[in-house]
Amino acid sequence: MTDPTSAAETAESTSEPIKTPDIPNVISLRELLEAGVHLGHRTKRWNPKMRRYIYGERNRVHIIDLRKTLTLFNKACNTVTNLVARGGSVLFVGTKRQAQDVVRDEAERADMHAVTNRWLGGTLTNFKTIQGTVDRMRQIETMRSDGTFESLVKKERLRLEKEYARLEKFVGGIKEMTSLPAVIFVIDPNKDAIAVAEANKLGITLVALIDTNGDPDLVDLPIPGNDDAIRSIQLVTRKVADACIEGMKRRRETVRSGGAEGAAAASGPMVEVTRRPRTSGGRDRTKQSQAKSKRKPAEKKEKDN
Predict the structure, then answer these.
(1) What's CA 245's distance to the chain center, in Å?
(2) Cα–Cα separations (whole angstroms), residue 207 to 7, 91, 186, 210, 283
(3) Which end of the chain is least crowded, N or C, by CB within 10 Å?
(4) What is the dihedral of CA 19, 23, 28, 29, to 10 degrees?
(5) Alpha-carbon gap, residue 260 to 102, rounded angstroms
(6) Do residues 247 and 241 touch, judged by C-beta distance below 8 A?
(7) How far is residue 189's CA from residue 212's CA, in Å, rounded to a whole number?
(8) Residue of 10, 71, 20, 87 whose CA lies nearest to 225
(9) What are phi and psi of 90, to 5 degrees?
(10) Strand locations in 65-116, DSSP E?
(11) What is the DSSP code (8-state) at residue 152?
């Protein structure tokens, strides 16, 4: 069995080889240790696919290797910064009770989107329908502001207030999301398995804080760590939000320095759709088929006679 403190100290003492010039460090091993990121689940609840991220065990609890967590954490934050700088957005997902407030606050601070209640199936794969729900919520907001509510009877106002509260609960965090996000950050992929499945289906970059009972193969950029402790969730979510803020800063600098070219670069890659020109061949074939259909009844009459 391995002492978690000694494991973390060993990781901190050997942290020099894992630093790379391409990926700057956004967090230190001591911060991870103090937040309890190294504490995993009980050994009987583990997923064997997480074996490569586990340092050892103590008192039947797995200890996560913070050296690997640090490397993957820096890589994930660097990816988030680059994608946001190119014009993408980040969707924060944390429906666990201890993660809801943290995820909501950090997403608002970074001016990003968040889902903190139940994930509605089809939020990404059926995005147009979800946008219709968001439009309904905005319609009620407009009725509030333009004085339409005052002309309604009390029963109707209560019904609309109840409907608005429900919409705000489930889609309030994504009402400003007019397109699919470039990155989805998830706290505990096991809890939000539907969100993970939709992201993988659409090819959206997935970053997740994953514990020893998760499946890292479902995540593009896994961050091995404790996904139950509030301090661990706060630390990881805050750093991801900082990466979003840094990406927004770079985007604004690119737009200011490059003018129109910078704006085009910051808005992401442009996709050119080419359509084949219409030819008269289709119309000629249509006329031929119509003439042929007119000849058939005449030929039939001649045969009958």
Answers:
(1) 16
(2) 25, 10, 6, 9, 52
(3) C
(4) -50
(5) 37
(6) no
(7) 11
(8) 71
(9) -125, 135
(10) 90-93, 113-115
(11) S
pLDDT at 296 over 50: yes
The answer for residues whose C-beta is within 8 angstroms of residue 178's C-beta and 6 or more apart is: 131
Please give the distance of CA 200 from its chain centroid, rounded to a whole number: 10
SS3 16: helix
Burial (CB < 10 A; 0-12, 13-18, 19+), residue 214, is buried
Q: Which of 183, 158, 211, 217 is CA-nearest to residue 78? A: 183
Q: Out of 9-23, 44-58, 78-92, 176-190, pick the least confident.
A: 9-23
Among all chains, which residue has been given the structure tokens 């429900």? 166
Which tokens belong to 107? 């997403």
Distances (CA, A) of 210 to 87, 99, 177, 215, 259: 27, 13, 25, 8, 41
Pair 37, 204: CB distance under 8 Å: no
- Give residue 81's Cα distance to chain centre: 14
pLDDT digits (tens, 9 = 90+) for 163-181: 999 999 999 999 999 999 9
- The residue among 86, 112, 88, 113 whose CA lies nearest residue 255 is 86
> In this structure, are residues 70 and 15 in contact, taking their beta carbons and an 8 Å threshold?
yes
**Position 214, amino acid:** G
Distance, in Å, from the CA atom of 92 to the CA atom of 114, rounded to the nearest integer, reads 4
User: Per-residue pLDDT tens for 99-158?
Assistant: 999 999 999 999 999 999 989 999 999 999 999 999 999 999 998 888 888 888 889 999
Task: Dig out the tokens for 194 from the structure.
Answer: 């539907």
Q: How far apart are CA 48 and CA 253, in angstroms?
A: 45
Mean of the per-residue pLDDT values for the chain? 81
Distances (CA, A) of 253 to 79, 262, 268, 270: 18, 9, 15, 20
Closest C-alpha among 127, 117, 94, 112 to residue 201 = 127
- The predicted model scores a pTM of 0.76
Q: Give CA–CA dist 223/37, Å, rounded.
A: 10
Q: Does residue 17 have a pLDDT over 70?
A: no
